């Protein structure tokens, strides 16, 4: 993929322009301070290189390009180097569970050493039950000997993909963010950032540490059956501006955001929940249409990126993007992302019928395996692969260390940024302001 790196540097430069300077909206004054420092157009025209430990051994407080400090990453690497195969396997899985009894996911986290779990609509009843569940998950991680929180994630994008409906504040579809940018770039960025901030704070108040948002896919409109109004825009530059603002808001809130679905699901004309969509876009078309919002996310220190289940014929034909090394190379080598990569759900129809989808994704470059069909079976498959050498221990340690480091970072930010007592009122106001700015 190195041959396209110069063109992707130009994409990254454009992402900086649309996400942080005049034209599509300069950073508004008076906003909450961002969690991490970000480049400005005068400082850089591409994502900053993360200093390695060997380059800055004297300064462990140096932040990486995706959140954690060098010291936190080094501490995580040292920790996982001593983990058993069972701990390592668990450390790269975000499990699924059925029902609403907090004891079930808590036992999975404790006994299988899971990085965490994903919470869906089927797992929630009301606010008290959600609080009991997230508390039980935190206790389970502590009982497993961890002094950092587990991944407790939820799809809470706004609009119809909101798994805490009736429990957390309802926000409009993310399409509203793009409309707000188009109506008034400066105001749009401010209300998007505030919406993400209050969403993240409210989720943290409910015990969550991750949010599976924002959606960076650039939709093609009516022919796109999966993303649609979940996308900020049909315009890559508008989408890039919205994504940059959202990432900063989530960072402000001290929650791990998850930009999705790389390298862009908006052009797929079939639904990956049911089948493996074939996307015939050329590499040049993907660069121009799909990558700008992801470049913006990386410039703005996105901590995690979710990989799509798409057959990208110009990059890795006949292989889901989530299981294709070439797609991870595109993200890491060409766009410069150094944070956590997580698959889309491994229970989706796009990857159904593959013999070992979790191992394929892990070997390709995934750091977290999201919602395998059978969490316990997948855990044992990964344990056996590590033990036999079918998957290198080095690869799994690399993945687990990134996950541990981002959880250390999340815990540190959460400690520095307490959830305000009036967070629900603030979230409702932010939702109304976003809607008002768009229409």
From TrEMBL:
Feature: compositional bias, Low complexity: 31-55
Catalytic activity: Hydrolysis of terminal non-reducing N-acetyl-D-hexosamine residues in N-acetyl-beta-D-hexosaminides
UniProt xrefs under InterPro entries: GH, Glyco_hydro_3_AS, Glyco_hydro_3_N, Glyco_hydro_3_N_sf, NagZ_Beta-hexosaminidase
Membrane spanning stretches: none
EC number(s) per entry: 3.2.1.52
GO process annotations (BP): carbohydrate metabolic process; peptidoglycan turnover
Molecular function GO labels: beta-N-acetylhexosaminidase activity
Entries under Pfam families matching the protein: Glyco_hydro_3
Family classification: Belongs to the glycosyl hydrolase 3 family.
Domain Glycoside hydrolase family 3 N-terminal: 102-405
Region annotation (Disordered) ranges: 22-69
Protein's name according to its UniProt entry: beta-N-acetylhexosaminidase
Signal peptide range in chain numbering: 1-24
Enzyme class, UniProt record, top EC level: hydrolase
Keywords: Glycosidase, Hydrolase, Signal
